[in-house]
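Please predict the structure of the following assembly.
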Amino acid sequence: MATTELPRPALPEAHHEEPGGIVDYLTTVDHKKIGILYIFTAFGIFLAGGVLALVVRWELAQPGLQAMGENTYNQVFTMHGTLMIFLFAAQVSTGLANYLIPLQIGAADVAFPRANAMSYWLYLFGSLIVFSSFFVAGGPAAVAWTAYPPLSTEYFQGTGMDLWIIGLSVVGIAGILGAVNLVTTIFRMRMPGMTMFRLPLFCWGVLVNQLLILFAFPPLTVAFVLLFMERNFGARFFDVAAGGNQVLYQHVFWFFGHPEVYIIILPIFGIISEVIPVFSRKPLFGYRAMVFAFFGIAALSFGVWAHHMFTTGVVYLPYFSIMSLLIAVPTGIKVFNWIGTMWRGSITFSTAMLMALGFILVFVNGGITGVMIASPPIDFAVNDTYFIVSHFHYIMVGGLLFGMFAGFYFWFPKFTGKLLSERLGRWQFWLFLVGFNLTFFPQYLVGLDGMPRRIADYQIERWTSANLASTVGAFLTGVSVLLFLWNFVVSMRRGAPAGDDPWEGNSLEWVTTSPPPHHNFHELPEVHSERPAFDRRHPPSFPGEGADTDPERDPDRG
Amino acid sequence: MQPSRRAPARWLAVTALVLAAAGCTPESVTEQGQAIYNLYSLFLYIAAVVFVVVSGLVIWSVIRYRRRNDELPTQTHGNNRLELIWTAIPTVIVLVLFVFTIQAQNKVLDSPGEADVNVTATAFQWSWRFTYEGTGAEVVGGPETIPELVVPVGQRVRVKLVSVDVVHSFYVPQTLFKRQAIPGVTNEFDLTFERTGLFHGQCTQFCGLQHTDMVFRVRVVTQGEYQSWLAETTRRGAARQPGT
């Protein structure tokens, strides 16, 4: 097997051996360990946010206030949204990206290992600052995760709100720093032969996602700084009485807020685009179209923010409507290309593949209702009702979590050298699929019937059955997450040995050991296509199979 | 694991639920809301077809092409013609939907000439004040009272929506319409109720501690009832607040 000498990365000094203790994790600049830290932290936050979600569902199971007062309820749903959107959803993918990107591009580490470590620690401490608001007088913020002024400035006193702003600003800065690192890594650290159009789709998803972060997080951080100044220093950016403008905040917030959806979901698209070809034993259908679709989605995502503001009465509706509708096109390309990949394939139903299939079904559902609410008149009806709640949970819970679990089951063997139990995995999958749909489908119906979001109670009796179903579904979903934790614990202890390449993978991480050595590779194959690991198993015997003979994809990049 | 047996059941269940959604939109009680209802129905039918086709393709392909042997399937990398088709079809669909959207939107937001009734709705933490312009009639809600917006059937009611503190939102589910009440912004929209009745209304933009309780009602009455209600309310208002 031909091997290629690695480019000399800017390797940090010292500890080439792997002590693996706590001190090692506290001081590490190894991208794999930082990736693991990210994943554990994000998953811990996900569990906390999930408990808050169950508290919300518990309260809403029946009409009347049973479990808590309105203030507590407002704090619970505010912190649920905050933890999930800001501290979990984008970060768990950053963790996977940290671990996998250098492996997939054949590098020994990321471009800036120290900045990488700093970005993780900023993220952790920013999150802890947000968590600390649970312990101050008055408790955490109760202003919804969107924190519209003047509710979040003049009308909500208490240190909790300030800690919320400070913590999230720190996390925002961590995100920007991390994005600089990952973008640079993908552009500059690829091994010889790994041209851009041979990058695994997960790398493309992460690249575009991190570029979006670079454009979307700065405005968000600015919005938070302005809020902080308005709360504490008498600045009046959003105060009408002083010539400020409330709608300005909505614009700046959603200029971040909508791209954030794609920041969360693009790496997931990447995961799905890795998992489906492997378990269909075929190359990804329409590789280039998939890449262009990423950029199409990214470009459009910055032109749609005001569809969150259709009901303000002060935005130009047709522009934001058509842009939002058009996002369905590149997204549709992705879905059809996944189907094209499976078509005439040879499909194995591993848990990772089941999760990927679950992803497609629920994501299409959420995407279709997304098209509906891109139409302003329909949005007038359903905006701020449970229809919207259901729509974005189909994308965020359905899309993100199915994709995340697909990624966990797929790469856990690479991270640990052991397989997660497939039997528990299948239980988890079916329980999750049923629980998820039972939670959120009724919310479409009760939303269409007019139930507003963010209310602690409802007096309308006919909303009860849908809410009860939703609550039962939420707890089933909770059980499925517990099954995953159980699977994790059991498999860490006595999981079956995975070997280096349990799934017959395509990308470079499957040619190294499981877990990979400190410097990632002992040897690397030559890269002639987007599937170097596949090419190694199936050396090209004639043109058209295995290695790519397309002259455009010649290995001699500049 | 036998996906071939379970998958169709799941598919059927999901489809049934999607179709069930069609029956769950409230029929609109306003002329403007009717346009939204029609548009929603159009979107829903197209959505249902798209969902059934796409999930059908997914489920068909995983059943039909599940692994049967160790033979490597043909390694196809793509098909430009197919990819063009599935780029073009969604584009056409969304452009058509956009045209219908604009038509419906023009009907919903159309406010020709003078309205028959002019009401200023003032949102505040955590209730509503409805002021009938040019009459002196006013309805104010509070912690113990749910305010009622009384309007005549068949007449064009113009609502001027303002907020005195934080962002709120005026929403009557059966009009299929809502609008934010934003400090510093005056929003105007027309509602023409087509039948009498009592309808639930609620703030839908989270506005602080008692957001949940910020409900109101719309009572749509005949023209005659409206006139006598207006006279009575004006008289009581004047009596209750002499000189203010």
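The CA atoms of residues 9 and 174 of chain A lie 23 Å apart. The first helix of chain A runs from residue 22 to 27.
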